[in-house]
Design goal:
Bound molecules: nicotinamide-adenine-dinucleotide
Helix content: 40-55%
CATH superfamily of the largest domain: Aldehyde Dehydrogenase, Chain A, domain 2
CATH topology of the largest domain: Aldehyde Dehydrogenase, Chain A, domain 2
Largest sheet: 7 strands, mixed
Number of strands: 21
Strand content: 15-25%
CATH class of the largest domain: Alpha Beta
Structural class: alpha/beta
Amino acid sequence: MSGDALEVRNPASGAVVGTVAISSADDVIAKAQALRAAQPAWEALGPSGRKKWLLRLQDWVVDHADELADAIQSESAKTRIDARVEVLFTVDQLGYWARNASKFLADQHPAPHSPLMRVKRLTTVYKPYQLVGVITPWNFPLAMGVADMVPALAAGAAVLHKPSEVTPLTPLVLERGWAEIGAPPVFAVVSGSAETGAALIDNTDYVQFTGSSPTGRKIGVACAERMTPYSLELGGKDPAIVLADADLDRAAYGIAYGALVNTGQLCISIERVYVEAPVYDKFVAKLVAHVGELRQGHDDRSNSFDLGPLANQAQLAIVTRHVEEALAAGATALTGGKPSGTGTFFPPTVLIDVDHTMSCITEETFGPTIPVMKVADEAEAIRLANDSIFGLSASVWTGSRSRGRRIAAQLTVGAVNINDSVINLFNPTVPHGGWGKSGTGYRWGGANGLRKYCRQQAITEPSLPTQMKEMLWFPYSPKKFAFMEWAMRAVSARGRRRFGPR
Ligand code: NAD
């Protein structure tokens, strides 16, 4: 390590909780070289050999749950339960990818597409990229890195992780855990901001980025310059649709959770709610009553609060601006409405009388706001829900699951939770990715979650004894070609055209 240090502050108290040396470009190069040197042996272990290490890390995480949660809380000031959820998520991810990697990475033998190709045995082989770079934001200091680092390691790649400069401490605890279990040195962390991230892109073979859409665009450009494959998980402005036939109590509780968990600093946070007119008043009353019960404060290990502060001053400024602009344009805050006056606390804020000219509806807020709009019917709800540059996820609240599925099919988003919020994030067998400005590519999705970290190799081999020459080989023979043409047309074309042109 060399160069300057990052000073890490607790956003609730402002106290300095740690300093971390910034990794220079040379530091990144040195770590990348060391990881590359260790990767072939890691790959050679195969999925079952790697499983052993991933499950040992899982043991370590379970045994160090309090230490990890303490680290998360120290640099984010999130509630104890939000911090413990990150640890549980880590345990879940390690178990799932470790236990399924053998199945997901096994060679595939697809059937030939045509009877004429049955003379071939076909194989698809998955070979990991050597070094995957993972760049993450600050909202989940542990879970965000884990979501991609674990599947990449399970696939057989080495991983270099650059967490956010706002929350660099927790990933270093996990890096220490990897060393303490004695695992092969294929996982390392570098610390710093954009410059360190740029060096990581220059020195890795696949870039998995999670963060804001503007930064994601820059990452995509940088990767394109190097022809490095990448995947971008970006921002969102997720809508919830509440239909008149919904269980309104469940909708109010579920939407409050989906909008306010982690103090609203979640990529798939609910940031807009559209409610059918007949139940609008009733739903808003239930939502306001529930939000009014929530406890916000600086939590410790005692699990005393539901919400913490925002993670930093920049985030507080965005949330404050969105609410102030809405109020100035005629919106009403039924709860909260302005910063609490200390640290980076902003109270949960239910906004009504909002519309699609307001930043609280069009821009990602990433904070504890719940703007609610009345809509005439389902069609208007779908039209407004789709009126966004983002397309990460959505939720639909209805008494009819088939109606929920029908609406889901009309929403231009990467995930839809029917009668629930956030839960897709805890289901790695389905893909997680954004449409529109919410990203390119997907994480997870069962086997695809590991195969994305692999190059795919096609192997063809004869399945029958071979002749000296194939029919198409030189010298060209019109007679042999005519036979081939007849046979291929007969199996591929349709109707009379199978036997020749009209
Ligand atoms: P950000 O884009 O500012 O930073 C993200 C990461 O990129 C940080 O580690 C940062 O240091 C790094 N970075 C910044 N500029 C870079 C550059 N030029 N080259 C390389 N690296 C660079 O995002 P943030 O403010 O830390 O996080 C909040 C954003 O993350 C929100 O938009 C949120 O929606 C998004 N997010 C998305 C998901 C998802 O899965 N879709 C999950 C969590 C958060």
